[in-house]
Design goal:
The chain is an alpha/beta fold. The chain contains 8 helices and 7 strands; from the N terminus they run βαβαββαβααβααβα.
Length: about 210
């Protein structure tokens, strides 16, 4: 259990939250200080600007009952994608420092339920190649020596496990394909939750940690 950082990534519905919570409990039971990180996209400044655009009457949005005002900005409809890519990058970097590197400096183990891989894939879907430059920078912000865990599942299982019916099947397919690509690039531990149970997955992660 010597690694100080465990980074999970994968589509919603693949089991990241369950495994992250189990791992944090295991660390605490062993006497370690643990911090949770959750980072994806549309944070801080990007969130504020998106809300402002919608209040000013911007027409490109999703209807989302759970969101403030019932709408979410669809950044695919923006003309200035390069500018928005910069805004997303500037918005997420302070969170990376605060939720990953500050806890590490304070002696915590960090379990990232979502981290920069999720940020990259989320923004690449909506912003395309405009985000590529920032994606390369963000990928270097995974601390060296991290255990990187890719949670995977079949498309059918992911769709059946989701409670957010506003997300399209096309988006999930993009996520699954992209996450598998990054799992190969990062030499991640890839686990298929369609084939393994919760306890089997937990034991495999702990085995890799030790």
């Amino acid at each position: 259990m010597q690694r100080r950082v465990v980074v999970f990534f994968g589509s919603d519905g693949t089991g990241k939250t369950t495994q992250a919570q189990l791992l944090m409990k295991e660390f605490r039971d062993r006497g370690y200080k643990v911090s949770r990180a959750w980072i994806r996209g549309r944070h801080s400044l990007a969130f504020f600007i998106s809300r402002l655009l919608l209040k000013l009457g911007f027409k490109g949005y999703f209807v989302a009952p759970y969101a403030p005002g019932g709408k979410i900005l669809d950044s695919r409809t923006l003309k200035g994608k390069r500018i928005w890519s910069l805004i997303e990058f500037v918005s997420v970097v302070p969170l990376i420092i605060r939720r990953m590197y500050v806890p590490l400096l304070l002696g915590y183990k960090v379990v990232a339920e979502r981290y920069v891989v999720d940020t990259v894939i989320y923004n690449s879907y909506y912003l395309g190649s405009s985000f590529d430059f920032y994606a390369r920078i963000l990928m270097h912000m995974i601390p060296k020596g991290s255990l990187i865990v890719h949670m995977d599942a079949s498309l059918n299982d992911v769709m059946s496990r989701r409670t957010d019916d506003l997300v399209s099947e096309k988006f999930i397919e993009y996520q699954l394909t992209s996450y598998r690509k990054y799992a190969n690039v990062l030499h991640a531990l890839s686990i298929n939750s369609s084939a393994l149970g919760i306890e089997e997955i937990r034991k495999e992660i702990e085995r890799r940690l030790s």
